[in-house]
Amino acid sequence: MPDLPPPPALRLSLDTDALAANWRALDAMSGAAQAGAAVKADAYGLGVGRAVPVLRDAGCRRFFVAHWCEVAAVLEHVPADQVCVLHGVTNAAEATYARATGVSPVVNTPLQAAIWQEAGGGPCHLMVDTGINRLGVTPEQLGDQAVAALQVDMLLSHLASADEDSPLNAQQLQRFHEVTPLVRPRSASLANSAGIALGSGYHFDTTRPGIALYGGIVRPELADSIRPVAIVQAMVIQRRSISAGETVGYNATFTASEKIEAATIAIGYADGFLRARGPGNALRWRSLDLPVIGRVSMDMVVVDCSACPDLGVGDYIDIPMDLPLQAALSGLSQYELLTVLGKRLRG
Ligand SMILES: *Cc1c(COP(=O)(O)O)cnc(C)c1O
């Protein structure tokens, strides 16, 4: 066995300058509040090992993950007291792990509060549900004995519709203002990426941007300051001519109406290039759009490269990751476009 495999036919790179600049822009937009970073789901598919050091060096001091299994990778780069686990402690094993690592849970229910106290307790965070009805104690449950006994470092709530001009935003803000004095936390945090753009009233002490760090534009106010971060490329592995009347791909869903040139690209739905990015979407080479033809396969996709006589095997094609446009073209959300990126890209 040779020591090193050949260069991969698929590559994901990060524009680390853009990632750092996005964090700084969101931190500046957060005014007096400090921007943290949601790095759950392997930093939205981009890789914790690559993203967290960049965010840390840019100045970020709060990192949010969802699961305990995500903690160890983050702790390789930042101290435990900067990491928060959003799902909290659902059982004794998680509480024991939290205590052992020094990572604080975000307590979400009276049961979680009891589990945390049972394990020895200590400072933690608390999520109060102000209207998303997803995760967090209700305002009424703040009177629960175990909840009331918590030493709350940061009080959190999460906005349901911050990416829209919805009356729910002001309603949730109002409820958050009502509950904060009941908890008397050391600090408070409400805004995700879109929430930051809702204005200073939503900022409190810490903001929790995720998608915008990675290039997502979830409100028009972010468009000028947020840059794309993910750069995805895949190799051409075959080039062929297709005669009029021939079909391409599984179930022969594309039929050539004239003779065309086609290139087979080494990326498919197993890599997160989902079938929703099939016909109607395009890949790019030297700024030229190459329309996808036929079904996306597990490991391959075929494009019409008639416009590129120079394109050949071994060339790398750009998989467009300008998130708002690609979301509109594919029907996937900007979040999905990133978080589905597959293992072969992140290896
Ligand atoms: C994922 C998440 C965020 C980040 O949200 P974005 O919309 O990606 O900015 C913030 N807070 C909580 C509780 C989350 O679950």
TrEMBL record:
GO cellular component, one term: cytosol
Annotated protein name in UniProt: alanine racemase
InterPro entries (UniProt xref): Ala_racemase (IPR000821), Ala_racemase/Decarboxylase_C (IPR009006), Ala_racemase_C (IPR011079), Ala_racemase_N (IPR001608), Ala_racemase_pyridoxalP-BS (IPR020622), PLP-binding_barrel (IPR029066)
Cofactors: pyridoxal 5'-phosphate
One Pfam family in the UniProt entry: Ala_racemase_C
Top-rank taxon: Bacteria
N6-(pyridoxal phosphate)lysine: residues carrying this PTM: 40
Positions that bind substrate: 134, 298
SMART domains, A to Z: Ala_racemase_C
Biological process (GO), any one: D-alanine biosynthetic process
Stated family: Belongs to the alanine racemase family.
Catalytic activity: L-alanine = D-alanine
UniProt GO MF annotations: alanine racemase activity; pyridoxal phosphate binding
Residue span(s) of domain Alanine racemase C-terminal: 229-347
The keyword rRNA processing appears for this protein: no
Keywords: Isomerase, Pyridoxal phosphate
EC annotation from Swiss-Prot or TrEMBL: 5.1.1.1
Organism for this UniProt entry: Alteraurantiacibacter buctensis
